[in-house]
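TEACHING EXERCISE
Course module: macromolecular assemblies
Task: Read the component lines below, then compare them to the predicted structure of the full complex.
Student: A.B.
Group: 4
Components provided:
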Amino acid sequence: MAWETARPLAGFGGGLLIGLAGAIMLLGLGRIAGVSGLAARALGFTASGAPRWIAVAFVAGLPIGAAILSGLRGDVLVRMPGSAALLVVAGLLVGYGTRLGGGCTSGHGVCGLSRLSRRSLIATVVFMSAGIATVALMRIAGVGG
Amino acid sequence: MILRVVIALVAGAVFGVGLTLSGMVDPMRVRGFLDLFGGAWDPTLAFVMAGALLPMACAWLVQRRLKAPLAAPAFSLPETRAIDGRLLGGAVLFGIGWGIAGICPGPALADLALRPMPTVLFVGAMLLGFGLHALTNRER
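Instructor-supplied answer key:
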């Protein structure tokens, strides 16, 4: 365990805000705050889902919120993988996979789990397990992330 | 409609602040959470999940008592669909991509503001993935 580098309080506080944002979408607009679905809708990759401008506004809010906090707090730690090829492969898998599976960490992992959806529970267990297995295999193969 | 767009923008911004504060925007921290067998497991993301589930669980309890959302005519929530190959296959592909880079869609978009390069590479590929899915799967 790496408790000396873990940030449980900031993690929990940031998590509360993520859940609050999901609650605003649900109780205010009657929608799931699922980022992959809203992003696909915002860019016109699907005709179903939220009204276009609602999707666009939510998706635009993500970098705006990040910029606001980093403006207030100074530099935010963002350690990107060094390999451009790995970033592209990962992006393709994340884009295709989240659309095929009907959600990502926010839609299945936060909104679905808290709704006690069996579908979302299974999706979350599967993508977490696949992520853990991938990191373990990359460690064995000596491929850096 | 303007009110609804503003609500969505505020929700997105609160989400973005939460991702940034929590450390989800840092791919290496996310990979540290997924790295169960590396000897230095980083538990931070478990706290993020716990924090996010708390207000959302309360929101679902309130939702059951509401006839309609506060600023829209009706709830439009996903109908529970069967657990099928799409769900499982999609989750596997997503999980592999998440493990490779430590980035999922929300943090990817937030990172566009924090580290435009090389985040655009990931986001560009992710949008290509959305497009590939749209081309190869008929709309349900």
